[in-house]
Amino acid sequence: MKRLIAGAALALMGLTGAAGADEYPERPIMMMVSYGAGGATDFQARIVTMTSGNEDALGMPIAIINKPGAGGRVGWNWFATQADADGYTLAAYNVPHFIAQSIKGGVQYSTDSFEPIANWGADPAVFVVGADSPFNSMEDVVAYAKENPGKLTVSGAGLFVGHHIAALQIDQASGTKMAYIPTKGGGAAAMKAVIAGEVMGGINNLSDAFRAQEAGNVKILGVADLERSAFLPDVPTMKEQGLDVDNSSVNFRGVMVPKGTPPEVIEKLAATVPEMFANTRVSKKMEAGGSPMHIMTRDEVIEMWAQRQQTLNELLAGL
Amino acid sequence: MEFIYYFGDVFSPLSFLLLLGGTVGGLILGATPGLSPTMAVALLIPFTFQLEAVQGLILLGAAYTSTVAGGAVSAILLKIPGAPANIATTLDGHTMAKQGQGARALQLSFLASAVGGIFGVLLLIFLTPVLAKWALAFGPSHLFWLAILGVTVIGTLDSSSVVKGLLSGCIGLWLATIGFDDIMGAQRFIFHPALGGGINIIAALIGLFAIPQVLTMFAKGRRNVGAEVIEVQRHSILAAVRELFSRTRALSIGTLIGSIIGLIPGVGGQIAGLVAYDQTKKFSSEKDKFGTGHSEGVIAAEAANNAMVGPSLVPLLTLSIPGSPTAAVLLGGLLIHGIFPGSDLFDNHPDVAWTFINSMLIGQVLMCIFGLYVAGLAARVAQVPQSVMAAIVLSLSVFGAYSVQSSMGDVYVMACLGIGMFFLERFGFSAAPLVLGLILGPIAEANFIQGSMIADATDGRGAYFLTGGLNLFLIAVVLASIVYSVWMELRHRRYTTKEEAQA
Amino acid sequence: MNRSQHIFGSGIVFAVGLWVTWISYTQQPAEAFLFPRLIASVFVVLAGWTFGKAVLGLSKVGIGVSRTMFVNLLPGLVVMLIYVFWAAKTMGFYTATAIAFFILLSLYDPAPHAEAKSWIKRAIITGVFVAVMYGLFALLLNVYTPKEILF
Q: What InterPro entries does its record include (chain C) (predicted)?
């Protein structure tokens, strides 16, 4: 009888206990996206994880779970405090969003709560105006902002997300103050405000702005990045137009796990996931959707996070 | 008339098979509690990776139309609204099912859906350029007034006492503020970690409608067999068609309101059904029958729901702006194939655009045929003994609330709201106004704050919210709605006091 | 229905209203609580009105909770609370659902408890239902439920 109980206990442990790295993953994996279904992050997350079931990738499918709300705070709070650190719960990160939010306070996470795995994309912020707007360059925009302090309305996806960081940097570089209007409903709602003429300009994702420009609805005046984008070779960067704005607002998207995930699991993921992103089927779909890819390994991401933490600390200190 | 040339593509074997599969699958997904149309479409996206652009969109379009209609099945038979769109359907539909008229309610709801849906898609086909301008006309101040218009409906929606109706609405408005405030990111009323994400509307709907019903069944205790079995009446489809067209007022009000409201980005889908229900009630000669299993209620609500589908895609297809979460998911389905909505879509890929739109038109018809076929069978659910029914609805509620975002917190919220609502209902409060508050609160708040920020930077709040043709028009409608409600209440009161005096 | 029940019911709503109002007016930042304040003010006035009417015995709407009703309800409610707040997460969704479903049927199904036949029938219904749920949510929709205790 004793033997039977011991056997049963052993079997139960085998079922519930943490599996070793060799077997990982032995069941489907869940990946939390802290924005709604249909948003840019959700859309890209679904594409980059679509090959995870292949034998040369993880060999198990990744299911996307959306926990939207408050510019991502809801999802990341959940991930930092309630997610199991067993390697079966991943999350998508958006830098600078979650770092800026953690500096601003009121949330239960910081860069120390998460372990990055790999980065898949980088989407710079761009400055857009309606197709019939009198502004034709950032110079015009800054000139207007200088003449009418606080009157230039600019939409963006929320407070302390990449768009807001870009707005703050433009303010700082030009010595002006724009009226930044955060919208509920993400980049799409912010773009709608620009097209409908509710605001005079907007800061939006390059991928969405590119599409809106193709449709003839907006003009893109500047890219908040170090170099011009391959999608928009004719649009100058902010730096070229005399505004000292670096790439701090670029929206980096990638995969992370909660702190406390077994090191073997992190190692395995860090080795496999960047290769999974590099799959040609993935890059084709991403390119078709106008989403710029930028694959980075775990070590590169750790460095990038630390760098952002520093720049954002300085930028947000004055607020 | 360009769209006619592409009808052939819809009927190519693979496309038609996908259309059929999407419709049937969509009805099943729509009838599953906790699966909103948005989630159902998102679940289907991976399947479209392997398909060509046209075929992928046919599948998604068919699924979208039929999930919206499928939501009526669980709303009518189980009193679990699958999405906010179906709330109004439960009010009369479930009562009809309890009286054994489930087949009639389902037939009417599918027929009304098809009529409304076809009208909506035709609007999309013929009036897209005009409608696109209309969709853009709604800025923050207009959306704010629109939400206030919704609030004025609260008191009279489904409650025997106006004060308690308004109080229910206030509870809903308050519940909506729980969680992170969306614009500032401040935390409000988070007294338990399960509330960190706020109250999920789908989980709340399941709790508020389904759980009180489970508890009511428990409260009846163990009864003898036979005492409770409802006779499910058969109802011929022909009779349903005849009834539908004799209720032209409900049908046309529902269809028109659904198409107009469906256009407005960010608001439409959630309140179209409720607004149409309320307006039909106001214009009806049989006002008192609403809420007691009156067919006009079902017809108006379901016609509005499906009429909204076509127009809700206008901002996406013409301006590349997704006007609703479902449209955002459809955008993903287009982008994966390298197709950008907007002029690019109609100029360079007319085959994709028109085949997609045509498939939604055919999809409405298929949805209706299939729906009518199962209506008679599905109505037999009412014959399931109450003890079994209570256990089934409870389990479905738990699974449904959980599957919205794989969160136990949503299940706890669902159960707490449900138990609370059961006792509140005993004291004359009702779920419909509470839910309306829950939906409208965030719309009113976000647009007020956003509008104020724009106004503060430009011409001031007074000018921003109170001037302009559309603002004034909406304010006038709000005032008319309040005056009408007060007048009806007073007239009603005089009648009741007279009756009491006579008795 | 009796007056004390109405006083109790509307009293709780009024208490919630007071609490909400208090929080809305004391918490910071003030801008974020602008809307809650507005709502809370209307809420508390209406709740006070309803409570006042109940105290004066003027509440007419609502049928209240009778004693037999409550006695009937209680076992089901207890099973539901245990199922939702404890069993689903600890035992796994499918196991917990099977157990709760069977208990609820045994409690409320009018078929006699002494006959073996009715017990078999209940077990079959439970089995079929859980199998359908598993097929729908786990196999078809890939919903990611907590780990099961039995399998």
A: DUF1468
Quick: pLDDT tens for C97-138.
Answer: 999 999 999 998 888 888 888 899 999 999 999 999 998 888
Is residue B61 within 8 A of residue B363, CB to CB? The reply is yes
Q: Is residue A14 part of a domain?
A: no
Residues of A in Cβ contact (< 8 Å) with B186? 106
Is A5 part of a structural domain of the chain? no
The residue from A215, A241, A267 where one domain ends is: A241
A118 and A66 belong to one structural domain: yes
> Does any CB of chain A come closer than 8 Å to the CB of residue B470?
no
Residues 344-383 of B with CB under 8 A from A: 344
Tell me what pLDDT residue A16 has: 43
- Closest alpha carbon to A300 in A275, A263, A274: A274
Contacts of A28 in chain C (CB under 8 A): 142, 144
B189 in A contact zone (CB under 8 Å): no
Q: Where are the domains of chain C?
A: 3-55, 67-140
Higher pLDDT, A146 or A11: A146
- Averaged confidence pLDDT in chain B: 84
User: Cβ separation of A16 and C147 shorter than 8 Å?
Assistant: yes
Which residues, at least 6 apart from A113, have a Cβ–Cβ distance to it below 8 Å?
A80, A258, A259
Q: What is the CATH number of the domain that holds A204?
A: 3.40.190.10
Nearest to B315 by CA among B351, B359, B266: B266
Which of the residues in chain B have pLDDT under 70?
Answer: 1, 156, 158-160, 223-231, 266-269, 492-503
Q: What is the C-alpha separation between B272 and B292, in angstroms, rounded?
A: 21
Same domain for A118 and A133: no
In a mutational test of the A interface, the residue from C27, C144, C148, C151 whose CB has the highest number of chain A CBs within 10 Å is: C144
Which class for B101: exposed (0-12), middle (13-18), buried (19 or more C-beta within 10 A)?
A: buried
Measure the CA–CA gap between B277 and B273, rounded to whole angstroms.
6
Q: Which residues of A touch C147 (CB under 8 A)?
A: 16
Domain count, chain A: 2
For the entire predicted model, the pTM comes to: 0.85
**Per-residue confidence (pLDDT) for residue B493, from 0 to 100:** 64
Q: Say yes or no for a CB contact (<8 Å) between B187 and A66.
A: no
CATH of residue A300: 3.40.190.150
User: In the block, which residue shows the tokens 């006579």?
Assistant: B502
Q: How far is C138 from chain A (nearest CA, A)?
A: 12
State whether A220 and A152 are in the same domain: yes
Q: Which of C83, C104, C141 sits opposite B387 (nearest CB)?
A: C104
User: Both A118 and A134 in a single domain?
Assistant: no
What six digits make up the tokens of A270? Answer: 């860090």
DSSP state of A237: B
Q: Which chains touch A (3+ CB pairs under 8 A)? A: B, C
Is the CB of B319 less than 8 angstroms away from the CB of A217? yes
Smallest CA–CA distance, residue C67 to chain B, in Å, is: 10
Is B420 near chain A, with CB under 8 Å? no
CB B107 within 8 A of CB B240: yes
Q: Is B327 on the interface with A (CB under 8 A)?
A: yes
Provide φ and ψ at B408, rounded to 5°: -65, -35
Beta bridge partners of A122: A252
Q: A216, A241, A266: which is the final residue of a domain?
A: A241
Compute the nearest-CA separation of B163 from chain C (Å). 7
Name which of B48, B80, B93 is nearest B336 in CA terms.
B48
A114 and A49 part of one domain: yes
Q: Answer whether C112 touches A (CB < 8 Å).
A: no
Range of the domain at A87: 28-123+250-317
pLDDT in tens, B226-280: 445 566 777 888 888 888 888 999 999 999 999 888 888 766 667 888 888 888 8
Structure confidence by residue, pLDDT tens digits, A111-158: 999 999 999 999 899 999 999 999 999 999 999 999 988 899 999 988
